[in-house]
Structures are given as C-alpha cells and as structure tokens.
Specification:
This protein is of the alpha+beta class and 362 residues long. Helices cover 23% and strands 35% of the residues. The protein contains eight helices and 21 strands. It has a six-stranded mixed sheet with strand order 6-7-8-3-9-10, with helices on both faces. Strands 16-20-17-18-19 form a five-stranded antiparallel sheet, with no helix packed on it. β9 and β10 form a beta hairpin. α2 packs across α3, α2 runs parallel beside α4 and α3 crosses α4. Bound molecules: adenosine-5'-triphosphate. This is ABC transporter ATP-binding protein. It holds the Pfam family TOBE_2. GO terms for molecular function: ATP binding; ATP hydrolysis activity; transmembrane transporter activity. Keywords: ATP-binding, Nucleotide-binding, Transport.
C-alpha cells in the first residue's frame, strides 16, 4: 500500500476539524486527518482517547458537533451508515446463528437489492478471500472464535466498500491467532486495495500492521506518521512514552538550532540530540530508547548511576540503573554478554548512541 500518499487528490477520507461533545464532555477536540486511498491507517491510543468515537463518526453512527468528514471529497453529513460506501467490522461481530456462513455474508447484499446469483457469487468470493471457502454451509455456532471473526470480515468486505473500519477486531482472539490474523489482514488489505482504518490500543499491533498511525490522547491527535517516524521521532512525551519503551529524562538544553540541539542530563557530559524544528520553547525532556544507551567508561559517560537489577528477556537483558537523583533508567544489551554485565550495586556509565536521542515537547 501507499505509505506516504495522503494528498487531497488521493484522500479517501478527510476529517476536517471534527468535534464531538457528549453534553459538557468533549470526546473529540477539533481533529483533522487525511487518510490516503489504499492506506492501512491506524488510530492508536489508550482507552477513552476517542478512537471509537472517531470511527463511529466516520461510519455515520454518530453526528458531528462541528466540523466535517469527506469521503473522496464528498461530505457525508446527514447520510445514514447504510448509505455510505463504508463498512465496519466490530469487536463484537454478532453473526446470525440460524443462518449458514454464506447466508450471513450475502444477507447484507440481498438487503441492498443485489440479485440472488450475484450476491451468492460475491459472498463466496469474500469467504474465499478470508480462507473460509470450505465452511460456507456451516452454522456460525460450529466455528471457532477466529473463524467467526473471518466470517464477519467477509461480511464487511462483500459489498466492496471504499473504506473498511475495523474496531479492535483482534482483541477477542488469543495471542497466537492474533499474530496470524494480523498478517492475514495486512495481506488482505494489500490485495483488495480497500482503505482500512483500524482502531487499537495495542502499540505493537499498530507498528506491525500500519502504513501510517495517528496517535491519540484526550480527544486529540498527538502525531501522525509512519510506524518508523512515530517510533524514532516522537514529537512529545506522550507519544514517546506510549509507543515502545523509553527513558524520558529531564534535560538542560545548552544550545539548539533547527533540528539539532545539545543537552546535558543530570550533570553528565553533554550530547547531541535531534528535535523537530518547530519544537516549543518549553521542551525540557529527552527520550532515549533503552537500546540506544550503551555501556561505557566514566570518561565517556553521558549518564551514570548504580545498577539496581538485571531482567533476562530472551534475546536481550534489561538493566535497570538508578541515577544519583533517584531517576530509574533502562538499558538493554544482547544476552550472551552476561559475564561482562555490571553487577547489581556497582556503578555503571552509559553513553547515548550517536543521533539516537530526541528532545520532545511536554
Ligand atoms: P476504548 O479503547 O476504551 O474503546 P476509545 O478511545 O475508543 O476507548 P471512546 O469510546 O471514543 O474511546 O470514548 C471517548 C470518550 O467519550 C470516553 O471518555 C467516553 O466515556 C466518552 N463517550 C463515548 N461515548 C459516549 C456517549 N454516548 N455519551 C457520553 N460519553 C461518551
């Protein structure tokens, strides 16, 4: 799919200053987004941040308080869900237990007035796409959770919507199955070319599946970017902290120009950091991923502290270090180097991998 394409000419969905209030409570606060045609786009954020509300507004289950939502340039205001070329796969994918699998999938097509033969053809094609071609005559109650989820997906795909909305569709599946269906979903998205808008609070799911991610909190979009942009170049503390593991450390900015700055942390040797050119003046924290802190000697140290513990994680060992002011710092080294790890209680010096720390907004 198209990782970068989201100019208005190819935008499938444009969210324009969308606001949603429930009484006094603002669930969405002037959100603007463009989602490119054929993109796998993810709304990521903690519980209550407004992801589902935004999805329901796009689908037409809720009305905007103000703002607009366009599908291929056309406002969807006033259009009920069934008149939008948008379909939704819900977390609770209620299938009809008294209908067979194929009847479940063709039901919506028949209701739209599509002729029987054509509806059956499309339903079978959609079931084939989700690898359920050999289950068409079963009852949904004879299927596993993962299989039911696939039928729900086929049901949403069969009308060939322009945009498919997926609201935490994998959350009911166990870990192994979830990983498998993740891969299948990305393949399906690429093969069909349908624009997917996927909602999750699982950052790993977002990073592994998406062309682009919008990170949300408190009804606002904090950052939009490719998984790599979001992980490597978080704009603010919230994004840095929510995506992956990081050390967020109070920093003294010694000099700063454009996208580069020099900072000092806890009185150690100054080091270079990256920042976005439009960063606010209040920026006073650096984000350093554990893997970007390297064990070193006292002369080279940007940060020093006392080792508090080692945690074995399989491929890596995580080392927790307490700085003099009590700040907890995490670093990671490859396991196998266990014999050379500084022992708990010993002093430990760390340097920041060149160019891999980032100054973030508050
Ligand atoms: P989750 O991951 O838990 O589903 P979410 O990010 O999808 O969370 P939303 O369901 O969009 O969050 O809810 C955003 C906020 O709006 C929440 O604080 C929620 O309580 C509130 N909210 C949602 N629907 C309504 C409603 N119908 N009436 C009042 N408040 C609502």
């Amino acid at each position: 799919a198209n990782a970068q394409i989201a100019s208005s000419s190819t935008a499938a969905i444009q969210v324009l200053s969308a606001q949603k209030r429930f009484g006094q409570f603002t669930a969405l606060d002037k959100v603007s987004l463009e989602i490119g045609a054929g993109e796998f786009f993810t709304l990521l954020g903690p519980s209550g941040c407004g992801k589902t509300t935004l999805l329901r507004l796009i689908a037409g289950f809720e009305d905007l308080t103000s703002g607009d939502i366009l599908l291929y340039g056309a406002t969807q205001a006033g259009l009920p869900p069934n008149r939008r070329e948008i379909n939704t796969v819900f977390q609770q994918y209620a299938l009809f237990p008294l209908m067979s699998v194929v009847q479940n999938v063709e039901f919506g097509l028949l209701r739209k007035g599509i002729a029987k033969v054509e509806a059956r053809r499309r339903a079978l094609a959609a079931l084939e796409m989700v690898h359920m071609g050999s289950f068409v005559d079963r009852s949904p109650v004879q299927l596993s959770g993962g299989q039911q989820q696939r039928v729900a997906l086929a049901r949403a795909l069969a009308p060939e919507p322009k945009v498919l909305l997926l609201d935490e569709p994998l959350s009911a599946l166990d870990l192994k199955l979830r990983q498998k269906v993740r891969l299948e979903l990305t393949t399906l998205q690429r093969n069909t070319g349908i624009t997917f808008i996927f909602v999750t609070h699982d950052q790993e799911e977002a990073l592994t599946m998406s062309d682009r991610i919008a990170v949300m909190s408190h009804g606002r979009v904090q950052q939009v970017g490719t998984p790599e942009e979001i992980y490597e170049h978080p704009r603010n503390r919230f994004v840095a902290d929510f995506i992956g593991e990081t050390n967020l450390l109070a920093a003294e900015q010694l000099e700063g120009q454009g996208t580069q700055a020099t900072v000092r942390v806890m009185g150690g040797r100054p080091f270079r950091v990256e920042r976005s050119a439009d960063l606010g003046v209040g920026a006073s924290h650096v984000s350093i991923r554990p893997e970007n802190l390297i064990l070193t000697d006292a002369e080279e140290a940007n940060i020093s502290g006392t080792v508090s513990q080692h945690v074995y994680l399989g491929t890596d060992v995580q080392i927790a270090i307490s700085a003099a002011d009590g700040t907890e710092i995490m670093t990671r080294v490859q396991s196998g180097s266990a014999s050379t790890l500084p022992a708990p209680g010993s002093t430990c010096h760390l340097k920041v991998r060149e160019g891999r720390a980032r100054l973030v907004d508050d």
